[in-house]
Amino acid sequence: MHQVFKTNDAFTITKKSNLFASFFTGIFNRTTAPDTSVASTMNTLLIKHPCRLLLLSVSCWILLTGCPKKDKHKIPVKNTPQTTHALPLDSLEAFSSVLTPSPWLKDFWSIPIPFQGNPPYHWTKEEKDISAEGCKSCHPHQFADWSRSMHAHSTKNGIIHQLSRDMHLPAHISKNCNQCHNPLVEQSIKTTNGKVNPAFNQTLYKEGVTCIGCHVRKRTYFGPAPDSSNTNQNKHNGFIIKNEFSSSAFCSPCHDLQPGNKKVNGKLLLETGEEWRRTRLSAAGMTCQKCHMPDKKHLFKGIRDSATVKEALSIQLVLKQRGERKAPFKGHPPLEGKDSIIAELAVTNLGAAHRVPTYINSQIRVILEQLDSSGNIIQSSVKTGIIGRKMSLDLKFEVFDTRLLPGEKFYLGYKLKRHPSTESLRGRIEVWPDQHNYELYKTFLNNPESKQSPSYQLIKKALNQAEISRYVLWEKKMRI
Ligand code: HEC
Ligand code: HEC
Ligand code: HEC
Ligand code: HEC
Ligand code: HEC
């Protein structure tokens, strides 16, 4: 499986698929150093690490087991001795403090978001409507983009099951999910003391993280500084300009669990803003909005969008030995190692200002495999590595964590015998955005008692959606 090592150049923390690979990638790093422009970009992106001054020579690579600092990178977990565990954020330097909310922002995000109240009587029907549908008539572009985003889907299928299930649980637990998935008072079926909520609004409930959650408090509208000073303040009593809309602190209340929540291996389940603060990009003013809302667009593209993920990753496939097709002469055993294919597939996070992926749900699968002349995969030749944070289904322990901060690299080393019918070697990268939930849904459906559950059909649908959300990000075939 995976072990953690630190590279000797560029101060990166790298993930190796095995000792063998670590040896070869050590050499690879030195002999095929990236060109200086890439290297300098990488350096600006690189996270600073307490161990960075410890420069190791190639030979030390092999001796890493004896290197005293190594344990810093390896947090052993019971029953899972051979896995990697990305470092807790506390051990990394923070470059920005702008996640701290201003008093206004703190108040703006006090959850649940209070009842909006009745609109002024002279407003038009459209202005009175606080659903996203209502905003659509005057803000069609924002509506069209938001509808395609995950924010508009935060109460669909699998989630809706979990939320509705939670509604039968003590109110403080369902409140926990609602604060990010359904933060308005109008979106809770019950009040915090378990009574029917008179303000409940079915349309808003289905819209999840909807427009007014981010823009409207008690019928007062808030937004970023507009692009032109000549703005129309005639509709919905105008709006109040707040610069906080352009800061990462605006997104953090939902994309970071607050300190004090349970940590596993020193890490919260959701800490994207904190990850961002540990990257140099945060100090350079690269806010969440700059990457996820370019031109103020409301698409919030992420792991489900191949173009976005491609922007984040640099991918390199290197073939080091083709593997001899036959033994050197008849009846003689092959020369030691010569019949092996030796290759390496490396994936670096160069474009996302947080871990890739940032959440436990997603996996990026790195695959090397041999193909025959008709393009069929030779099953015994497939080797897979996973970039992600795999948690047990009950979220109690971490199985592995190979996520990549900016500048970090994941290596899949390959050394296998060349199959007699092999014609090419293929590198492939797949994205499985919903893998944690997929396994959760499967476990639920496989339990015979679940057939009676009113949520059975919803979960079946959610499983199907999780499966079709998978896609191939990148592929490269080398004839050998
Ligand atoms: C009847 C038309 C109308 C409706 C309905 C409407 N708006 Fe507006 N909204 C406007 C106009 C006009 C402006 C001013 C835009 C400008 O001139 O730049 C505006 C401005 C805004 C701004 C500030 C833009 C900025 O540059 O900061 C926000 C945020 C906003 N609206 C959100 C909403 C939301 C959310 C809804 C639905 C709950 C909504 N609006 C419904 C017409 C409307
Ligand atoms: C009110 C809470 C809330 C706020 C504020 C919020 N988000 Fe989200 N965001 C969510 C939730 C919940 C999801 C997951 C929805 C789902 O998949 O069911 C999400 C999903 C996303 C995704 C897509 C993830 C994927 O899997 O592709 C992106 C990107 C994102 N948010 C970016 C942002 C940015 C940038 C901001 C700040 C401008 C922001 N969010 C503010 C709650 C919020
Ligand atoms: C602190 C805010 C927060 C809380 C509290 C929270 N979530 Fe989430 N949840 C998110 C965000 C943000 C995402 C998207 C994360 C990403 O993709 O990086 C998400 C994603 C999810 C997903 C995967 C979404 C999908 O469509 O694939 C599920 C399922 C989920 N949450 C369920 C729950 C449940 C159930 C609870 C309550 C027990 C809960 N969440 C509590 C913020 C939160
Ligand atoms: C997750 C929070 C979030 C949600 C949901 C959201 N917005 Fe925004 N919106 C923002 C942020 C943040 C900005 C400012 C982006 C920036 O400054 O780069 C913004 C900017 C705007 C603006 C002004 C910028 C422009 O394009 O003129 C309008 C108008 C607006 N939003 C309307 C809407 C409407 C309508 C919806 C629902 C269809 C919506 N927003 C949903 C966070 C949100
Ligand atoms: C420099 C650009 C950049 C910045 C800044 C940035 N992101 Fe991302 N983000 C990306 C890219 C690229 C991806 C796609 C790769 C991936 O999924 O990690 C992504 C993915 C995501 C996802 C998808 C879920 C996942 O597991 O990856 C969420 C949610 C998200 N970002 C939230 C945020 C939040 C919140 C901030 C601010 C604290 C932020 N991002 C800042 C580039 C950026």
Textual characterization of the structure:
The chain is an alpha+beta fold and 480 residues long. The chain folds into 2 domains: 3-93 and 264-479, no CATH class; 103-246, no CATH class. It contains 18 helices and 13 strands. It has helices spanning 19-31, 36-45, 58-62, 103-108, 125-128, 132-136, 140-148, 157-167, 171-181, 202-207, 211-215, 252-255, 272-277, 280-283, 288-292, 306-312, 435-446, 456-468; strands at residues 3-6, 13-16, 216-217, 220-223, 240-241, 313-321, 340-349, 363-372, 383-391, 398-401, 409-417, 422-432, 471-479. A 5-stranded mixed sheet has the order 1-2-11-7-6. Strands 10-9-8-12-13 form a 5-stranded antiparallel sheet. Residues 1-83 have low confidence and may be disordered. The structure holds heme C (HEC) (5 copies). One heme C binds next to α9, α11, α12 and α15.
Walk me through the topology.
Elements: E1 3-6, E2 13-16, H1 19-31, H2 36-45, H3 58-62, H4 103-108, H5 125-128, H6 132-136, H7 140-148, H8 157-167, H9 171-181, H10 202-207, H11 211-215, E3 216-217, E4 220-223, E5 240-241, H12 252-255, H13 272-277, H14 280-283, H15 288-292, H16 306-312, E6 313-321, E7 340-349, E8 363-372, E9 383-391, E10 398-401, E11 409-417, E12 422-432, H17 435-446, H18 456-468, E13 471-479
Helix pairs in contact: 8-9, 17-18
Bound molecules: heme C (5 copies).
